[in-house]
């Protein structure tokens, strides 16, 4: 059985989401608060292994028009280090609007600003994973 894990990699936090056992939808899991680059890469690799991941999906931040930004390069460096750290395949998925959608969802549910930072990144990771699952299921991959 396959299980996908997604990460929304930010400068301060990394959101974590996992797929259901049939890879049809994503579930927000938790938010990892960053400590240091190497420690963070190790932690993400360990999280994926603990969750039984057969595939890691990392959100790739790009500008609205699809061009790359400074954050894109920072994330690519993290992803390349992660690929070197784990035998689990790693793919990238466009993460445009995923954090904005997560904020809007939490606001619509009445969550206060102070509490949102604990949930927004894992919800954004779930949005990233949902996008990936929709794309591959549409292709029939």
Whole-number average pLDDT? Answer: 90
Instruction: Spell out the helices and strands N to C.
Output: EEEHEHEHHH
Number of strands: 5
Structural class: alpha/beta
Oligomeric state of this protein: single chain
Uncertain stretches of 5 or more adjacent residues: none
Percentage of helical residues?
A: 40-55%
**Rg over alpha carbons:** 14 Å
Q: Judging from the principal axes of the Cα atoms, what is the shape? A: globular
Biggest sheet architecture: 5 strands, mixed
Strand order within the widest beta sheet: 3-2-1-4-5
N-to-C terminal Cα separation, in Å? Answer: 15 Å
Q: Can you describe this structure?
A:
The structure is a single chain. This protein is an alpha/beta fold. The protein contains five helices and five strands. Helix 1 crosses helix 2 (about 70-85) and helix 3 (about 100-110) crosses helix 5 (about 120-140). The relative contact order is 0.23. The model has no long low-confidence stretch (mean pLDDT about 90).
Topology:
Layout lengths: L3 E6 L3 E7 L6 E8 L3 H14 L4 E6 L9 H16 L4 E5 L3 H11 L4 H4 L3 H20 L2
Parallel strand pairs: 1-4, 4-5
Antiparallel strand pairs: 1-2, 2-3
Helix pairs in contact: 1-2, 3-5
Quick structural overview:
The chain has 141 residues and is of the alpha/beta class. The protein has helices at residues 37-50, 70-85, 98-108, 113-116, 120-139, and strands spanning 4-9, 13-19, 26-33, 55-60, 90-94. Strands 3-2-1-4-5 form a 5-stranded mixed β-sheet, with helices on both faces.
């Amino acid at each position: 059985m396959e299980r996908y894990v997604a990460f929304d990699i930010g400068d301060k936090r990394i959101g974590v989401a996992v797929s259901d056992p049939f890879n049809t939808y994503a579930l927000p899991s938790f938010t990892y608060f960053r400590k240091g680059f190497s420690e963070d890469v190790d932690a993400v690799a360990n999280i994926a292994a603990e969750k039984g991941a057969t595939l890691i999906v990392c959100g790739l931040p790009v500008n609205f028009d699809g061009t790359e930004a400074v954050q894109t390069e920072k994330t690519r460096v993290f992803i390349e280090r992660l690929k070197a750290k784990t035998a689990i395949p790693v793919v990238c998925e466009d993460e445009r609007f995923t954090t904005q959608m997560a904020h809007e969802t939490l606001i619509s549910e009445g969550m206060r600003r102070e509490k949102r930072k604990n949930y927004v990144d894992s919800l954004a990771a779930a949005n990233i994973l949902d996008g990936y699952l929709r794309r591959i299921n549409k292709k029939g991959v």
